[in-house]
Each structure stands twice: as structure tokens, then as C-alpha cells.
Amino acid sequence: MPSDLSSPMDDAGVRKMVVEHFDFVWRFLRRLGVGEADVDDMAQQVFLVLNSHRDAPCGGSERAYLAGVARRIASTYRRTQRRRREVAGEPVAELQDLSPSPEELADRSRAGVLLDKILEAAMTEEEREVFVLFEIEQVTMSEIALSLTIPPGTVASRLRRARTRFEAAVAAWRLNSNEEAS
Amino acid sequence: MKDPIRFLHDPPNSAIAALLSAARDTRPPDGSRDRVLRRLGLGTAALGAAATATNAMTEGTTLATTAGLLPHASQASAGAKTFAAATLTNVSQWSTGTILKVVGASLALGGGAVVGVLAAFSEPSTSAARPSAAGAIAAVQTATAPNPSAHAEVASAQIDDERQLGRPATSAVARRLAPSTQVSAGTLAGELALLDEARRAPPARALELLATFRARYPRAAMGYEASVLRINSLEQLGRSVEAVEVARGVLRSYPKGPATPRLRLLVGDTR
Questions:
Q1: Which terminus of chain B is more exposed, N or C, with fewer CB under 10 A?
Q2: Cβ atoms < 10 Å from Cβ of B1
Q3: CB atoms A52 and B262 under 8 Å
Q4: Measured between beta carbons, which residues in chain A are less than 8 angstroms from residue B41?
């Protein structure tokens, strides 16, 4: 949303939002579990929502507003995917499915896949949203509270739990890969 | 509220550093952002769009010829050129899929650019993101003489097109133009011209034109598109309660319409 919240955003304002925040929205959706084949479409949905609500208030933070829209779209997407998997009877992915060695983490695409597996397996959807925004997207806790419309204390507790779970999951994975190597 | 130090700045171990740093460096593929800008009608890549149009026209020609809908390649080429001239100024706003549909269907009919407009209406809207119906109709007029079974052929082309794109052939457009549908070319052109005028008009004027549309064409072939335009206009005027009400009606009548995802968001249905 524009800095001047008293007037609806014009084309230039929407364009600026896309140019400045597209990478952020795309990456956030990806880390919330939107599949690679779908993330472009979902990112597009976020900006279509922005475009059709040009005069909606955003509380002063463009990034927080977009994050709020993105997490709702990602949440719907994930629910749909879960339903599809259930109908198809597909097994849920396990952490052990992918065990690159610590050296292999230098391969960034594999690191991304492993990270997604850990996020998926180790934390709840709510914790994941806070963790990704804070640890990867470098969003401040007060902005996260604004974007997710939750109290700051809830952001802090979700982040604390998410960090603990994340550390534990990474430690378990390292132990597992060390055992396999020896 | 004081933020803790991020893992990225003070990682507990090298694995966490590697994982988070890789995530932070992730970037969308080239062109993703520009596609969104074009979809919103905010793109500026005219040269890129021309190249896309050329490629899509080639694909469209191939598609129509393969489907056995074009007896002569030269006819396809002439149709493509005519259509391109009529619509190139707007083509930068279309997705490749839409262009392919438009060109493929228009070639199949010789004068079937009308269907291109139908297909383009299936895209969620911005006013700039739509092709010109007037341009499409001009293409119709300068192309080969209409075929008596034109609508049936276009419906087949559209269905084949969707099958080739891996989608079920169930779009409102394809159904509407199925052989059982009796819509004269004159009526369809009239509907399109009126809708095109409404699309380019300011929202208040657009609503007047859409009321005229409803009165003039009570059993319109383009009723769905007219309703979506009406919703857009109501939204632009800030009449969101009415927009939601109309959207609910449209969703009830066309639960699988091309604008369904957007309308669901509008009515707050996040299924």
C-alpha cells in the first residue's frame, strides 16, 4: 500500500510494489511450502489481490500487508495440496527421504529442499510463518505482528518455539547423516 | 519489543548457517516479475511482447493446421498477420497461453478473432490487460468469408486447444460455443462491441453500458464476462457490498468459471 494511505494507489504505486517486493513475496511463498511449479501463479495472486484492493488500508507497512495476503494464499494452497495427497493416498514426506552430507549443503538447491523438509516436519504452520519472516526475510517482530494480526507476545513465543524445534531438527539430521557416513 | 539476534547473523552451527543462507539467496526465475507486471497491465516490454506474439502466432498456426482446421498454410499466415496488426498494441498484456488461444482460434475460423476476445476475457482483469474487441472484429471483417459452421469449429478449436494445454475442455467459452449453442455472428459482434466499450469506459459509465447490455441481450453469450465486468466496475466505485453480492450470484451460476479464484477471494471464500 502507498505511504500516503489517504488516497487509493495508482498504477505507478502498484508497479512500485511489484518491483520492490516481488522477490520477497515469491521467496516467502516458496518457504511456506508452495511448490516450485506453482509459486509464480501464487505470487501473481498476491499482487492481483493488491491490485483489486488498491484503497484498502494496510496499517502503514507495505511488506507486512503483502506478507499477510501471501500467507493466506499459501495456507489455502497447502490445504488444497494436503487434501489432494489424502485423496491420492500419497505418503507424507519424511526427513530421512533426503540426507545430503553437510558438505553437500554447499549445493544451494539441495540446501533449499532440505530446509523445506525441515520446516515442514519440525514446526506448525503458524510457527513456520513467523520463523521464515524473521530468520530468512529479516522482518522485524513488530512488523510480523502487524502482518499476521497477532499480538507481539504471540510472535515472540512462536519464534522461540520455532527456533528450538529448528535447532533440534537440524541436530537430528546431522546426527543421522554422520551415522550413515560412519 | 526487542528482536533477538537472527540465526543468520549468529548461527548456532555451520549447517544452520548454510541452510538459512541458501534460503536467503533464493531468487525467482528470470521473467517471473515481468509476467506479473504484464498481467496487471503494467508491463512495458513492447519488444519482448512482439517477439512473444510472433512465437505464439507460429504456435497457433501449427495448432490450427495440426487440428485440420486450416486447409492452406497461406490462409493461416494471412489470418495471423491481419490479427497481429489489429491487436499488437494490446498483446503485451496477454499471457502466452492467451495469445496462443486467440491466434489458434482466430486462424481456425478465418474470422474467428472474436473467440480470441472470448478467451482473453477469461483472464482476471485490468482494463489494460484486455485485447480490443474492435480490433478483433476488424480482423474478422478482413479475414476470409465466414464459414456456416463457424461456431462449431471454433468450439472444437478451443476444446482442442485446452486439451493440448493439458486442461479439461470445460471452459465457459467452449461450452458456450458448442454446436448446440445458437448465437448469430451479428449478435456476438454486437455483444463484444458493447462489452469492449464498457471495458474502456469509466466505472460509472461502464455500469450504464452493462445495464444496456443486459436489456439488449437477455440471453447473452457473453453474460459471464458482462457480470465479471460489472463486479470490477462496482469494486472500482467502492460499492463493495454490491460487488460481493453479484460475485456470489456469479459463483453460484458458474462455480468453475475462469474468474472463480478471484471472485472467491472477493467474497471471502478461502476454500
A1: C
A2: 11
A3: yes
A4: 11
The ipTM, to two decimals, is 0.82
State how far the Cα of B98 lies from the Cα of B132, in Å rounded to an integer. Answer: 14
Contact B243, B266 (CB under 8 A): yes
Query: Are the beta carbons of B36 and A27 separated by less than 8 Å?
Result: no
Q: B177 vs A22, B105, B108, B152, B258, CA distance in Å?
A: 38, 12, 14, 7, 15
Burial class from Cβ neighbours inside 10 Å (0-12, 13-18, 19+) for residue A37 reads: exposed
Q: Long-range pairs for A93-100 at CB < 8 Å and ≥24 separation? A: A93/A117, A93/A120, A93/A121, A94/A121, A95/A121, A95/A169, A95/A172, A95/A173, A95/A176, A96/A176, A99/A173, A99/A176, A99/A177, A99/A180, A100/A177
Closest residue on chain A to B233 (Cα): A52
pTM of the model: 0.48
Q: Do B16 and A166 touch (CB under 8 A)?
A: yes
Cα gap B196→B127, rounded to integer Å: 10
Grid cell locating A49: 489481490
**Residue of B157, B114, B155 whose CA lies nearest to B136:** B114
Nearest CA in chain A to B21: A136
The answer, for A181 touching chain B at a CB cutoff of 8 Å, is: no
Q: Which amino acid is at B199?
A: R
How close are the terminal C-alpha atoms of chain B, in Å?
A: 35
**Contact A135/B at CB under 8 A:** yes
pLDDT in tens, chain A (182 residues): 444 444 677 888 889 899 999 999 999 999 999 988 899 999 999 998 888 877 765 556 788 889 999 999 999 898 888 777 677 665 544 444 445 555 544 555 677 888 888 898 899 999 999 999 999 999 999 999 988 889 999 999 999 999 999 999 988 887 776 665 55
Q: What chain A residue is nearest to B23 in terms of C-alpha separation?
A: A112
All three cell numbers of A35, joined, read 511448490
Q: How many helices (H) and strands (E) does chain B have?
A: 14, 0
Is A15's CB within 8 Å of B26's CB? no
From the CB of residue A80, how many other CB atoms can be counted at a distance below 10 Å?
12
